[in-house]
Amino acid sequence: MRILFVEDDPEQLEPLAIALSQVGHVVDAVEDGQTAQWLMGEKEYDLLILDWMLPDLDGIQLCRLYRDAGKGSPILLLTAKDTISDRVVGLDAGADDYLIKPADVKELLARVRALGRRSPLWTGDILCIADLQLHLSTMTAERQDVSVSLSSREFQLLEYFMRHSKQVLTRDQIELALWQWGTEPESNAVATLIRRLRQRLKSLNCETWIETVHGTGYRLLCPGDAG
Q1: pLDDT for 99
Q2: CA 50 – CA 34 distance, rounded (Å)
Q3: How would you classify the pairing of strands 2-6 and 47-51?
Q4: Of 54, 47, 56, 37, whose CA–CA distance to 76 is shortest?
Q5: What residue ranges of the chain have pLDDT lower than 70?
Q6: Do strands 140-143 and 132-135 pair parallel, antiparallel, or not at all (unpaired)?
Q7: Which residues contact 188 (CB under 8 A, 6 or more apart)?
Q8: In 3D, which of 171, 140, 163, 179 has the Cα closest to residue 220?
Q9: What are the beta bridge partners of residue 28?
């Protein structure tokens, strides 16, 4: 999933964002509410993790702004506030779940998995194109009883292709989908990643499904699909 994670304490933000990235999520990690508000208007997210106490716009205000914009992706509120009245305020503002700080990594990942199943973009734990399966929980691709493990970035790329099969995707679109906000991938990063993924898919005999559309980008097109 693409996740917006807002937490003003870098000692909490960085390790949790890394843990989320290691299990395949693309995480935009920011430390202030104003940047988060801008990103909420610029990008589509599968899940938001919002700290309640922020120096400018706080998590409750961000919840309300997001819901007022008509957006329905799940929101996990992360905060030290733990009274019943605090929880009611958070839930009434539009949060779907509540986690008390300091957050345990395993519990956070479990809550994220649970909330991911509520996302409007959730399609289940296995994506399928023809007889190619992508297992989201294990980051493995499988075809004809042969499976291959993928790195986090390879997994993210294949998932993006499978969710947009037959669609020509430009380098800019792939960079926006796979790289975190604020990072600057090298000019050949997408081409290198495409090459690595094709190499992984050789053992499944479907490396040619990722086509290069010269002058435009790439697309996933399995045999039998119209051009």
Answers
A1: 87
A2: 12
A3: parallel
A4: 47
A5: 119-124, 182, 224-227
A6: antiparallel
A7: none
A8: 163
A9: 4
Contact 100/80 with Cβ under 8 angstroms? yes
Rg for the chain (alpha carbons), in Å? Answer: 19
pLDDT one-digit tens code per residue, 81-138 = 777 787 788 788 888 888 888 888 999 999 988 887 776 556 667 888 889 999 988 8
Q: What is the rounded CA–CA span in Å between residue 95 and residue 108?
A: 15
Q: Residue 125: left if φ>0, alpha if ψ -120 to 50, beta else—which one?
A: alpha
Whole-number pLDDT of residue 165: 86
Is 98:92 a contact under the CB 8 Å cutoff?
no
What pLDDT, on the 0 to 100 scale, is given for residue 141? 94
Whether a cis peptide bond, with omega within 30° of 0, leads into 10 is: no
pTM of the model: 0.70
Say if residues 54 and 8 touch (Cβ distance below 8 Å).
yes
Output the six-digit token pair for 177.
């989908």
Residue with tokens 């499904």: 209
Cα–Cα distance, 126 to 163 (Å, whole number): 11
Give every CB contact of residue 117 below 8 A, 6+ residues apart in sequence: none
Quote the pLDDT of residue 150: 93
